[in-house]
Amino acid sequence: VMPEKLGDSVSCPSCARKTSTQKQHTFGTLPKVLCLHLKRFDAALNKKIDDFVSFPARGLNMGKYLAQWCEVTSLRSSEEESGVAEPQVYYDLFGTVNHVGNMQSGHYLTNVK
């Protein structure tokens, strides 16, 4: 949930000083049905990414990825208690689509509940 620090500093347009940069992905709102696409091909290396991906079949809480929640957590220190409960937005796995093959050919197989 916390922002990822990026390597290169950039010039701030307001003060003209070099500042560090961060990247963070959040959701403004969450849909009733959530569809996630994971990047599984590396075009630069021309190969498939075979790293194992683990996720729960039930109870994936996406509430902590809401933009409003991320703002609250980034403003307080890790030791400080805010008294604000983490939002609870749960999803259960309904299906997956998997690619079997390589970068040049293959098949997509689905698994649906």
Q: What can you see in these coordinates?
A:
With 113 residues, the chain is mainly β. It is 8% helix and 32% strand. The protein contains one helix and eight strands. The protein has one helix spanning 67-75, and strands spanning 4-11, 18-23, 41-42, 47-48, 60-61, 90-91, 95-101, 106-112. The strands form four sheets. It has a two-stranded antiparallel sheet. The protein has a two-stranded antiparallel sheet with strand order 3-4.
Question: Which sequence of strands runs across the widest sheet?
Answer: 1-2
What is the string of helix and strand elements?
Answer: EEEEEHEEE
Q: Structural class, judged by helices and strands?
A: mainly beta
What is the CA-based Rg, rounded? 19 Å
Shape call = flat
Q: What level of helicity do the residues show?
A: under 10%
Give the CA-CA distance, first to last residue. Answer: 29 Å
The tally of helices reads 1
Model regions low in confidence, pLDDT < 50 over at least 5 residues: none
Classify the beta-strand content into a percent band: 25-35%
Average per-residue pLDDT, rounded, comes to: 83
Q: What's the count of strands?
A: 8
List keywords for this structure.
about 110 residues; mainly beta; two-stranded antiparallel sheet; 1 helix; 8 strands; about 10% helix; about 30% strand
Write the layout of secondary structure elements.
Layout lengths: L3 E8 L6 E6 L17 E2 L4 E2 L11 E2 L5 H9 L14 E2 L3 E7 L4 E7 L1
Antiparallel strand pairs: 1-2, 3-4, 5-6, 7-8
